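Quick one:
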Amino acid sequence: MRCIIIFERKQIGDGIWFSRITDKRFKVNRISVSFYTEIGGDYSRADYAIVPYILVDSCAKYPDYSQLSLRFSELYGASMSDNTSVMGDVRCSSLAVTSIDDRYALEGEKIERETCQLLLDCLLDPLMEGGAFSAQTTQLMKCELIDSIDSVINDKRNYAAQKGGEAAYKGESWGLSIQGTHEEAERITPESAYGAYTEMLRSGRIEISAVGCSDFTESEQLLTAAFAKLTRSGVCTPYYRPSPLKSQTLCVSEDMPMKQAIMRMYFKAPEMSDRYAGVLLSMILGGMTTSRFFMNIREKQSLCYYCGSFSNRFKRVITVSAGVDAENVERTREAVEAEIRDICENGVSEQELSRAKLEIINDARSVYDGVNSISSWYGSQLMDDEVITPEQYIESIQAVTAERIQAACRMYSPDTFYTLMPEGVQP
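Output:
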């Protein structure tokens, strides 16, 4: 595996961190700024969710999307993106710009500097009107946010994931849609959205990630100077809490006009600390085409159309998702639980372990394929005790034994069973 040329991380302000990852193999650079804020407080989830929508649409210098888009086009097709997600138990609101490196500018333009400045213009100098965001921009972005919230119901898998998560993580921020509800979005005003924005600037933990072929010296200087002007207090410390196990398995069922049923099972292990055994266990159960769920439940027993699993290392949860005919829901549930019991009692084979390791190692190696994946890799470790490279991760995966996987499996217990059923059919 090839190595990163430079990885450096340092604090450049009050709760502001700058990470650079330089790799001369790339021809592009990506700079992202992420704000980590507490979920709750004086503003709704929808107020926070709309902020990135507004910031990527315009700024004071380029007061509408067409002008902003034209400016990005002039910078050799540079682009800006936004994202809002949950990281552990806090919200992460991000903006990022991607552009070609200065070496490839035809007339010696300073593309990195210009795109970094444009990112700062959007972040710190938004289009204002009467001490708040522009009413027209807010209304347009509010419609987009509402459309995004409402569209979940059109994708039954996403809807089941959302509703199942609400049941499994009741009382936890992880179980709530980070975009908020339709009703919250309807109540957004230019003032409430601007209030959430100013709270992000005041108390958000700011993580800046610069990935690409540049050394980002000039960008670091621009970003440091710009964020030094902020008034900061009560800066958020990102954190996570393992999801508590319910005293008895919660069973929830809903129905919708649809032909097939979707089931989601949540297994929790709040005390489980073996991160690497956990990810391998999930891979062996349902994370690859040779997994137990695929081979034994889908192929051999023909109980479902798909059946897979994934793990959440922050919440210490393995989630199983399956699409089944309504009459096979209970049999599929029993088959999933039987596979887990078998690992608890008999462990896994060396062949299963070898295949799972190979899948995970290949995924880790692919981190270096692009600036987005590199940025995501290091960004996902914000709450860890140490930041590790893909190579170090691979070493830890290679060291996992079948005995460790069996021990990890024994720590998981069923917590929530959610089914989305065809209308009029009982689970």
